Structures are given as C-alpha cells and as structure tokens.
Amino acid sequence: MNSQLLSLAIWIPILGAVPVFAAGSERRCLVRWLALAVAVAGFLVTIPLYTRFDITQSGMQFVEQVPWITRFNVQYFLGVDGISMPFILLNSFITVMVVLAGWEVIEEKQAQYMGAFLVMSGLMNGIFSALDGVLFYVFFEASLIPMYIIIGVWGGPNRVYAALKFFLYTLLGSLLMLVALLWLFLESGGSFNILDWHQLPIGTKPQILIFIAFLVSFAVKVPMWPVHTWLPDAHVEAPTGGSVVLAAIALKLGAYGFVRFSLPIVPDASHYLAPMMITLSLIAVVYIGFVALVQTDMKKLIAYSSISHMGFVTLGFFIFNQIGVEGALIQMISHGFISAAMFLCVGVMYDRMHSRMIADYGGVVNTMPKFAALFVFFAMSNSGLPATSGFVGEFMVILGAIKTNFWLGFAAATTLILGAAYTLWMIKRVVFGAVGNDHVATLEDIGAREFLVLGLLAASVLAMGLYPFPFTEVMHASVDNLLKHVAVSKL
Q1: By percentage, how much of the chain surpasses pLDDT 90?
Q2: DSSP string of 421-484?
Q3: 103: nearest Cα among 452, 443, 336, 357
Q4: Is the peptide bond before 226 cis (omega within 30 degrees of 0)?
Q5: Closest by CA position to 309, among listed 393, 367, 235
Q6: How far apart are CA 40 and CA 456, in angstroms?
Q7: For the chain, what is the total number of helices (H) and then of strands (E)?
Q8: What gap in Å lies between CA 364 and CA 134, rounded to an integer?
Q9: Which long-range contacts (CB under 8 A, 24 or more apart) does 436-442 make?
C-alpha cells in the first residue's frame, strides 16, 4: 500500500471528478456530497505520507517507477522527500476547504466547478511527486487548464482577459523550461530522471543558461517581480475558490521548482546568480509591500501581499543556509493557510454585498462579530504576529539572512512593518468603527459551514505558530542533503 500512496493522491481526485461531472449541475445536492467525498478521500490517503515518513532519510520515499514511453526512456516515476511531501498534504487539505466554501455560493454549472478543482488537486499532487522530467512537465502544464477554465467561466466581468493573461504568461514561461529539459535529456545520455540530472557534470556557461531557462518559467509562477502583473488581475477576476487555490497552492509550484530543479541541477549557476535572485526577492518584499498599501480593492491588496510574502521564499532559498531554506519552506506552507483564509474572508463578505472595495464597508464587527474575530486573527497572522504561522517562516528567513549579511536581514525585516501597515489599515477601515452604511447594517454573521472552514484554517495557523516542529522535522534531512549538494562546487 505504501508504494501506491502517491498514485492514489493523484488519481483519486482526478478520477473522482468523473462521477461529479456526470452527476450534472441539476442535481446540486448529489454533486456537493460527491465532490466532498472525493476531496476528503483524496486528503485521507495523503495522511500516511506524513505518519509513515522516515524523518532520518534524506532521499525519496514512497517511490513508484513504471515504464511509460519506453522509446524515449520516459517513466511514470513518483516519490517524495521532506521538501515535497508537506505540499501534497497542504494541497489536499485546501481542496476540501474549497469544496466546502463553494457549497452554496456557486449556482451555475456547479458540477463542472467542483470537478475542475478536483482535477487540479490531482494534477498539483502530480507536480509535487513527479521525478521524471516529462511527467513533471505534463502535470505542470496540465494544471493550467482547470485554473484557466475556473477563472474564465466563474470569474468577474473581465474574466476572459484575466484568464488569457494568466494562461499566456505561464505557458510562454514554461516553453524555456521545456528546452532546458530536452537539453538535460541529451546531456545525460537519454534520461529524463530528475535525480540523474542532479549528478550531471555541467559546464559553467550551460549551467547559467539552464538556470535562466528555469528562472523564466518558475519566476512567472511564484510570481517574482517584474513578471508578477498577471496575478492581481487573476485574483480580482477569479471566484473565491480560484483565488484560494491560486494563492495557497499554485504560487508554490514555482518556488518548488527552484529547490527541485535550479538549486540541485545547476548549483554553480545558483551561487553565481544568487545576488540577482536576492535583489529581485527584496524588491518584491519591499516595493510590492508599498504597492499593497495603496490598494482600494481587498482582493488586490491580498494578491500584492502574496507577492511580497513569496519574495521571502525566494530570498530564503538563495542565502544557502539551513535556517533560511527551512524558513522559506515553512513560509510557503504558512502562506498556504493564511492566504487561503484571507481570500475566503473576502469571499464571505462578497457573497453578502457583492463588493470587494474597502470603501464600501466599515463597522463589520457590529453585525458579524464571529466573522470579524476570525478575519482579524488572519490579518494578524498575515502581519507576522508571534504565535501564528506567519511569524515562524519570516523569522527563520530573517535569521538566515542576518547570518549571511546583517543589512540583508534588516532589509527583509521591513516586510514585518509593511505587512502590518497594509493589512491592519485594511482591517481598520473594513471591520472596526461605526457601521459604514445600510448594507453593512443588514449583514448576517457566518453560518456553521463558513465557521467550520475558517475555524479549521485558524486552528492550522495557530498550531503551526505555536509548535512548528512537526513541520520542520520532516524537511530537515532533505534540506541538509540539498545544501551539501549545492555547496559541493562553487564558482
């Protein structure tokens, strides 16, 4: 059973989407419960990945290897280490939250909506577990399709523009990655095995070119400055569930690409171009933080906040020390919980008032006290409040940066001030004060389903903030092994 867990995590959501599609949107009750059953089953099969994971081993576990396209030596090759395994759990958990969040909100084409999220969940699990270059690329590109459909069908007024921009940015970025994968295939003597590529003796100039090819693809996904402009448009137009998956999981795919491809395959180029990566990361952390300050649309503010927080992730990877890299991975998981919760909170208000504009609210705490308490908690987490998960990753990356260079850590720490400024400024105008208008006065507080979704995310944020050890212990051996590999040869 151990050897099939990753296949189950991938194919239960994808194949489970078939009966959801077949049920048809007319039978809404059946569709909901079918989608929830599939999402929960998909999450449950990922739990043994954690409980049976050997934290002392740095290599791949739960490995599955079957010939696929034998002529080109392409294999159905799956496996996870301490770096990739937590993201499969995060993805499967968030899928359950998204299904619950869309329970009553989606009125048109509900079967297709739920099914698209299930398919995307399986594809993303495939990305995090693929150890064959072709298999990774297939999953990586295929995951664009359900997200494109979700934005384009259930999005806002400018949904077609936003969906096309998202699709074209990410597709064009991936073409260079395909070229790099083919070059590595030829250089390795006909192997698409990613682990084989980690051992390739590649010259300095080819390493730099391969790094840039991967950078273009993964930077768009993160997204890093200056290729970030598609994200605010996609978030604003996407339905709430689309924004949740986009922020909580899809943005992590690019960052994951750096630690699975860029760092281990081209370590010399990673060191050589680290100053550029650190500079781009700091621009995202500081400049995008100021951009978030002036936003009037809550979704846009949270979208820019995501770009700023993901800047911490790329910064942590390219300072090449244990606490920095682990902090970046923790920040990815934490951001998955917090960004999902923040977008769900905006969705709760949008479902009631059909507005995302900060100016249309005020005094929400007076009519929605339970919701306001949770919203403020998530806002504090987004600001990096100690005892929440938002603090742990950022603090570790700042410590790692200070170990490298004090002023680097100092610059990174400015995000704690900026994050508090734009998040709490939004909360002050939306939640606190007198009731802003008649629409706010008639708002109803969250029901049991909404409270369950937000409550589970709040518990996750708090648990990770108070006791991050279960998260750091699983990744420690794999991160240590990665850093030893990257440090073997420096320019």
Answers
A1: 12
A2: HHHHHHHHHHTSSS--SHHHHTPPPP-HHHHHHHHHHHHHHHHHHH--HHHHHHHHHHHHHHHH
A3: 452
A4: yes
A5: 393
A6: 14
A7: 25, 2
A8: 50
A9: 436/360, 436/361, 436/362, 436/363, 437/360, 437/362, 439/353, 439/360, 440/353, 440/361, 440/362, 440/363, 440/364, 440/366, 440/367, 441/366, 441/367, 442/367
Rounded Cα gap, residues 207 and 158, in angstroms: 40
Question: Are the C-beta atoms of 363 and 436 separated by less than 8 Å?
Answer: yes
Q: What is the pLDDT of residue 488?
A: 56
Pull the structure tokens for residue 158: 């400018």
The radius of gyration of the chain's CA atoms, rounded to the nearest angstrom, is 21
CA distance 165 to 235: 12
pLDDT (0 to 100) of residue 490: 46
- Reported pTM: 0.88
Average pLDDT, the chain: 85
| Structure-token pair, residue 260 | 């699975």
197 is written with which tokens? Answer: 């590529």
Q: How many CA atoms lie within 13 A of 45 on its CB side?
A: 21
Distances in whole angstroms, Cα of residue 81 to Cα of each of 8, 210, 247: 17, 24, 23
CB 390 within 8 A of CB 465: yes
What is the pairing mode between strands 74-80 and 61-69? antiparallel
Pairwise CA distance, residues 356 & 376, whole Å = 17
Return the C-alpha torsion angle 349, 353, 359, 364, nearest 10. -50
Q: How many CB atoms lie within 10 A of CB 387?
A: 13
Please check whether residue 115 is in contact with residue 30, taking contact to mean a CB–CB distance below 8 angstroms: no
